[in-house]
User: Fold these one by one.
Assistant:
Number 1:
Amino acid sequence: MSLVEGLSKIAPNGMAEFQEKMRQQLESSMHKELERLLSTGNGEEAKVSQKDFDGFKKLFHRFLQVKGPSVDWAKINRPPEDSIQPYEKIRVKGQSDGVSVGVALSKLVVVKLNGGLGTSMGCKGPKSLISVRNENTFLDLTVQQIEHLNKTYNANVPLVLMNSFNTDEDTQKILQKYTHHRVKIHTFNQSRYPRINKESLLPVATNLGLTGENAESWYPPGHGDIYASFYNSGLLDQLIAEGKEYIFVSNIDNLGATVDLHILSHLMSQPSDKRCEFVMEVTDKTRADVKGGTLIQYEGKLRLLEIAQVPKAHVDEFKSVTKFKIFNTNNLWISLPAIKRLQEKNSMDMEIIVNPKTLDGGLNVIQLETAVGAAIKSFDNALGINVPRSRFLPVKTTSDLLLVMSNLYSLEAGSLTMSEKREFPTTPHVKLGSSFTKVQDFLRRFESIPDMLELDHLTVSGDVTFGKQVAVKGTVIIIANHGDRIDIPAGAMLENKIVSGNLRILDH
């Protein structure tokens, strides 16, 4: 049990003062340790870290005040009907609003969350530099999308990348290749916060360095850090001075998150005193999305409810597709002046996510994080829009990668759209086993990507390879037992088949 857990378990009667004293001691120890860490850095490094630590101190202070779950389950209500609008209504309305596309685009900035590494897919460096389609990386596709928009409408929509200390150096090197593209690219770095020992609640870092024994001592504190980092970088003020009004924020690995002109037009057509300051794109939940955050009405405000905030007794209810029908895609449209106002008033309210980790040496630490969508309750006239599933196409695993590399999707100007040749719009369910986890292994096992136009479900487990021009249709399950290997021959057509055991077909 950590000190903060111990504090919250002490009986309330007569102990409030003792609890407060303990909190003050913990906070004082943390501040001293942060000062000591700052003294180990050089001028510029210490200056940047000082800003980061100021943000961390606020988060740590709030963390010490938290008592129990951050939501009272009995107070949770479904959002009012008008607080989540169907996309179709926005689309039809957007066409009749009379705002010119050029004018609307002149007010827009595209922001991509680019802090993540490709380690979960067996790749080194930023995830955004993984090739996903025809040798194009996530970043290439993003640049192509915005360049196409700028050329088509004679616009100047800039791209902003929120990097982390893990991704910044590699990203900066690669940005040079886009110098002659019609997209202005800006970057800023999210904060670098210290991981803290679960028992002592003090930083595990010995100095400000990022290498050696300190390599695991730091973390980027979740995408909720965008507001403070964007503001502190000076870029927020610069873009407001250029006349920009909204940012469209999304994860760089969500290939469905393209600029939607109907949503933008809807935002720009409202009277300035009733401007919607925050739009969250949500979509209908399926069994695959049970862990995704959902929108609720709580104490009169639209609020994001994440699984980490749900009391254990209600987790199954939270996962239910019947009670909570939609989930957050993390495609967000946010007012720049509103971010500035909330940052300057220090009134951006986001729940703390306590993320436990175990370091390589076995030490248990915690990371204090926030989520960008959690700030929805701080903004005026916030709105959810229930968008088509096609706007949520994340690539988190090689199973997702197989889908987007296949003939299910066609690629045009950086945007992927479901092929017209597929007779039904649902995405097949693909589950590749551990032999396919790393991108390098995945690519080695496919001589070419199978035809998946008529696929419903594909499960592959064990040592399996695919020859050229294989087609999979309906439900296909391929399981190679331990020690066996299955080679699917070139030109094979598998429809509603289960293949198991050992199948090695040699060409003659």
Note: The chain has a mean pLDDT of 90.
Number 2:
Amino acid sequence: MGEQPIFSTRAHVFQIDPNTKKNWVPTSKHAVTVSYFYDSTRNVYRIISLDGSKAIINSTITPNMTFTKTSQKFGQWADSRANTVYGLGFSSEHHLSKFAEKFQEFKEAARLAKEKSQEKMELTSTPSQESAGGDLQSPLTPESINGTDDERTPDVTQNSEPRPEPTQNALSFTHSAAISKHWEAELATLKGNNAKLTAALLESTANVKQWKQQLAAYQEEAERLHKRVTELECVSSQANAVHTHKTELNQTIQELEETLKVKEEEIERLKQEIDNARELQEQRDSLTQKLQEVEIRNKDLEGQLSDLEQRLEKSQNEQEAFRNNLKTLLEILDGKIFELTELRDNLAKLLECS
């Protein structure tokens, strides 16, 4: 049945700089699907990765290859046939370890297959040569490679505390300002989350369309295989060969049905993500409305504070004028008291003289 994907993951793909042989050159702008394929006709294992329709990795696993972990999330291997070194950057150490385990497993399988082939050649004494086009394999499409890894990053919102003011009106104003800053920070965080979810939603929508096309292709393939089984049962006179071929076709149909089931589950998961994105959009709209209400309230408080300041200034001016008038009155009263005192003294002297 040709090549079949047996393990897939997602990673950032790099190749060693052919000039310096030291620096890594990225061959994909974002994480792409990297898959192990098994060619049952040639009994070989290959690592394949496509970026759109371009094959950025096409490496046949040989027994002398070694996959090396250079960090917690990065690994590399050298391909002498392609005359390059491939590097993969994973989202977590678990994905790197899983890929390395599969590499070792398929490398051992390739070694056993090579030994078995050599033993068969020795027994039959019929030497064989490798085809000159051994590295050129059947073309692959992006639909044959599946990935399952996604990441989410949380956002952190910081709240600022308002500084207390001496008056109650000022306290209300600064408290409202703190609430406004808090909602602004919340709104900024939700805008960031909304942008990320929008990008993920667009990518998921594109993936859903692609998977729907794959599902249709799988269904067509299943129908074609069913028809082929019917034709073979009617035409072929070799019952054993027909039975074997039928078994293989049924197995392929079963694999396609399992693939369809996985795709349907993935579509359901994407629908849930879309619903979550809509809920976040509604929350963002609600917070925007609350922020507008807080801003209106702040403007009202600012107007009240300005009016109070004007009234306070007017009251201070009136008190100052009253203080000045009272001072003048006290000065006049002191003069009158002094005159009355002199008058009393003069009257007392007149009385004594008389």
Note: Residues 122 and 351 are 163 Å apart (CA to CA).
